[in-house]
Amino acid sequence: MKLYYFPGACPLVTHIVLEWIGKPYDTQRLTREETKEPAYLALNPEGLVPTLVDGDFVLTQSAAILEYLAELNPEADLLGNDPIGRAETRRWLSFCNSDIHRTFGLVFKAPLFTAGDEAAARAVSAKATEMLRSFFAIANDQLRGRDWLTGKRSVADPYLYVLLRWAHAKGVPVDDFAELTRFHARMERDPGVQAALAAQDLA
């Protein structure tokens, strides 16, 4: 099994999950230029990361990869062991992937959506930051009285952790959210998180 990644990008979520699972895996660090080369495009036609290769099976898209790994390794108990538990995990995984992650795209790539208009790009980024605050507030409320998003550790938790890393890097104000601060600090102490960060030279 092999994970293709950029350091600190969304494949860090999968990297943490692979550490939590505890089975052998390989990684390949890429540059953005390498993701546009024919060899990589044959694996991932979008030229994006992550890509997971498991034997002859090639899988893209973070949410699909995370569910695949969780289902492949039920003993790790990262998806939920009944329909309600799995639904809750998928709910918060979707929230991280479809709402928070998608909105970060407007922060990271605002000029692409504004034809190079710098003032418009700043306005887009500011509005996206406001939206991110509202999403993180929901996650903060969900964590009240819980150590994990669903009440037990799941594939949604490292996704939220990586998104919080992005928030800190991009100046999205989240330090006033006490539950998120507690969650982030505990994740930083997690051995699997520490191993993934060290492997990506982020420790």
Quick overview of this protein structure:
This protein has 8 helices and 4 strands.
- Number of helices, counting only DSSP H or I runs of 4 residues or more: 8
Structural class: alpha+beta
The CATH topology label of the largest domain is: Glutathione S-transferase Yfyf (Class Pi), Chain A, domain 2
Query: Distance between termini?
Result: 24 Å
- Helix % is 55-70%
Q: How much strand?
A: 5-15%
Going across the major beta sheet, what is the strand order?
Answer: 2-1-3-4
Give the CATH class of the largest domain.
Mainly Alpha
Provide an overview of this structure:
The chain is α+β, with helices and mostly antiparallel strands. The protein has two domains: 2-76 and 195-199, Glutaredoxin; 83-190, Up-down Bundle (Glutathione S-transferase Yfyf (Class Pi), Chain A, domain 2), CATH 1.20.1050. It is built from eight helices and four strands; from the N terminus they run E-H-E-H-E-E-H-H-H-H-H-H. The chain has helices at 11-21, 38-41, 62-72, 83-108, 118-142, 156-170, 178-189, 191-199; strands at residues 2-5, 26-29, 51-54, 57-60. It has a four-stranded mixed β-sheet, covered by helices on one side. The longest helix has 26 residues, at 83-108. The radius of gyration is 17 Å and the shape is globular. The two termini are 24 Å apart. The relative contact order is 0.14.
Features:
Glutathione S-transferase Yfyf (Class Pi), Chain A, domain 2, four-stranded mixed β-sheet, 203 residues, 2 domains, alpha+beta, 8 helices, Glutaredoxin, 8% strand, 4 strands
